[in-house]
What does this fold into?
Amino acid sequence: MSDITIGPLRLDPATARPISAANLPMIKLDERTTEALKRFKDSLDDPAARPSPPADPLYATVKVGGRVVASLSNSGVASFPRSADAIPGLTSDGIGPELAAARAAQIAQALGGTVEMAPTALSQTQWTASPYARSLQDSSRGEQALAQLSALLDAGSHAGIQRQLQQAAEPMTP
It folds into this structure.
């Protein structure tokens, strides 16, 4: 029988012996992180069940001579219809509409254009409460949970990870 490899762990079935998971460390995850991890696990099991991300509406456009050279979403993502108009080194300071406003001003200044706010532009407070911002927070929580699980795996605590995944998969009680 050949060795079994699970991540960084290599098991030799000839010398394997049962262990008790009772003394392995448990990580405590808050309810939102546990839910995010459960959704992530479910999406791995069924890729078709992956939810579409919420819409990220237009914050503003930058125009030069009446032509749109850049569009910015409420989260601060800038897109350029022509790659020649793209500005290298856009700021990363801020998040959401604060980032979008800073980037729009930076692009307008670099290209000699003007910023036109979209009717769908959100304030920072509105954006923070939006489904899009919450989905980013959930994604971040899922990444943090995965990092914690990875640390457990690196520490050789595969049983602890299994226990966490089993708990995450169990139905939540109200």
